[in-house]
Amino acid sequence: MNALFVFWVIYSCSLSAFFQIGSCTMHVLIHEVTQDVPQVMLAELKGTNQCFAIKCLKKTVVLEDRDVKSTMIERQVLTIGTSHPYICHLFCTFQSPVSLSYTESKTLRNKRVFWQQYLYFVMEYLCGGDVMFHILQNGRFKEDRARFYGAEVVSALKFLHKKGIVYRDAKLDNLVLDHEGHVRLVDFGMCKLHIYRRECMPCNLAGTPDYMAPEVVQGQPYNHAVDWWSFGVLLYEMLVGQSPFRGTDEDELFWCICNEQPYYPFYLSKDAKHILKLFMHKDPETRLGMPDCPEGDVTWQPFFKDIDWEKIERKELDPPFKPQVSENDDDDIAVSCLIIRYIIISGKIPKSRDHG
Description:
By secondary structure, this protein is α+β, with helices and mostly antiparallel strands. It comes from Cordylochernes scorpioides.
């Protein structure tokens, strides 16, 4: 892909540098980075309105935190999911060199500057904000809007499950809207691959506490059923505006998840209450979404009776809400909670191995 990308980078003090990454030429205004967390850069294709999101992971941090496996899993899942309409699309991946030295005349003469190694994920720029942001703005969604988002998430989860992938991190923060208002699943570092048989099932504690299924909390072997539990929790949050299980600390929260039933407000419809109860069923074998559920498939439920699933799969249904995003606003909701930086890249971005 021949392109001239314009990125802008914001750091804490001013040094300029020039270096090669594979076949890319990058001009960077760089400063010291103080946070050992993945950074996301907003990238614009020069001369166009096309934008991209570039996730940067510092290799030393990945190694220190023993996140090599999860990083590779995220790359693999993004590669698989790029063909699906409701999973964040990955365009390519590349990495920076081991080290770099340069001398800047006058101010940095005879001084060597070593750059951090980074892994880069070039992904689609989702400019509609995450669903949690919109819940905080609206309090809760009307059933039609929650049903629409829910149907698109169901499509994405079914796709992953057919590939033997357990997502393990379904939550409102990981549902992001595109510019049209369609949902995308993001952040796949928590995924577990090749879950087809019982002997492959994990039993470690993984995920976000509020969304963990009882079998995860209890340390039992688990499978795709945990994603349907988490989906039930996030559907409840969209419809009610709060979590179905709460506690003053993690231990109390886990006790509630394993022993209590959620409270269903009076304004929820009969169909909404019914499907929420099926998703948050304590027994994973008969939970909605699993083959042994006596109520049948997720798509058969009365709650989704108005959904045309063929059109959902083809992304042909109009979203109930379209984000109002300014084309040139760096502070819009699309980049909330992200550190925006700007870089200039010119050259040919290499494709990931999975893309040929």
